[in-house]
Amino acid sequence: MWDYSCGGADSETTLRRNRSAFDRVAFRPRVLRGLSKPDLSTTFLGHRLALPVMLAPVGSIARFHSDGAFACARVAERVGSASFVGTLSSPSLEEVKAGAGCPLIFQLYVYGDHQWTEQLVRRVERAGYTAICLTVDLAAYGRRERDLHNRFFPLESIERPNLEATYEAASRVVRDEYNAGFSWEDLAWLREITKLPVILKGVMSLEDAELAVEHGVDVVYVSNHGGRQLDHAPAAIEVLPEISAAVKDRAEVVVDSGFMRGTDVVKALALGAKAVAIGKLMVWGLAAYGEEGLDRTLELLKTEIGTTMANVGAGCVRDLGPESLRPSFPPDPAPWPVGSPLPSSSVPELSLEES
Predict the structure, then answer these.
(1) Contact 277, 84 (CB under 8 A)
(2) Is 225 annotated as catalytic?
(3) Which of 79, 80, 82 is nearest to 69 (CA)?
(4) Comparing C-alpha atoms, which of 225, 315, 327 is closest to residue 267?
(5) Has this prediction a pTM greater than 0.90?
(6) What domains are there in the chain, each with its CATH number?
(7) Residue tagged active-site, from 65, 114, 225, 232
(8) How many CB atoms lie within 10 A of CB 254?
(9) What is the rounded distance in angstroms from the CA atom of residue 19 to the CA atom of residue 145?
(10) For residues 82 and 87, what is the distance between their CA atoms, to the nearest angstrom?
(11) pLDDT tens, 17-73?
């Protein structure tokens, strides 16, 4: 499960790039702004979020916590944020919604024809979800070598309560063909059959962002699937500025892929994102210590975001913009592994009084 949560596609170049790209962006701090405690709240589809961090959809979430998506929704409610519930996750979308009061977004994979898809959309509507998030970057399942080495096949032998019996009856090849064959024309059809806001997840080019807006998408979700799909793709934070500029005020923008620190979140907010979604951090927190572990993960992010905003000179999220950043160069590698004790030769001897 550690390799599954940490790994990426093929050579994992995209995975590494998601992180290294943050090192090429520096802050432009402003001082003497007369600020007190920064306001970290933002809005998403008209809902106020106390924290600009949401919990991303993870189909295998039940492998990290027995309550699966329900555990994430409970944590999101406690911190005043929102959570995604995946097509492949458990428990059922109805159970999660019945037990949580936070905004919930249903993440949709298309594993059947229009009739199959509409039936699932109607379930989502009846349950009272906030929006539908269509994931479009899974035309072919990424070749993740860590899973292959471990003989780990995450799509097998796990409960899928959000899917009808027709899903189980269809072969994997048939299901993947439906998902890969979904087109802009099909997106227009989806937009027509529901009044729920539609989010398009997996957008990595400004051309597709513009097409998404033209097709009535309410939120453009910038994501390279955490580096788990296409090897040698650009980092999400790399393409975020051009997509935000292309979308402007016609749709909201959210982003995920590689976000590990509060500084990462603040950079994304400055580049036009309304919020950031976390996946790896979410499952690590749950796996480490259940809901309390995820609570602590979000608490740490909140502290880091607040500290960063204060030192940048931003009193609220609206104060952040491209002028808060500047291009920079990656720092030199640390002379010893980050997090390890200092080499003994560099630690001065201290007397008892000095220590």
Answers:
(1) yes
(2) yes
(3) 82
(4) 327
(5) yes
(6) 2-346 (3.20.20.70)
(7) 225
(8) 26
(9) 20
(10) 17
(11) 999 999 999 999 999 998 889 999 999 999 999 999 999 999 999 999 999 999 999
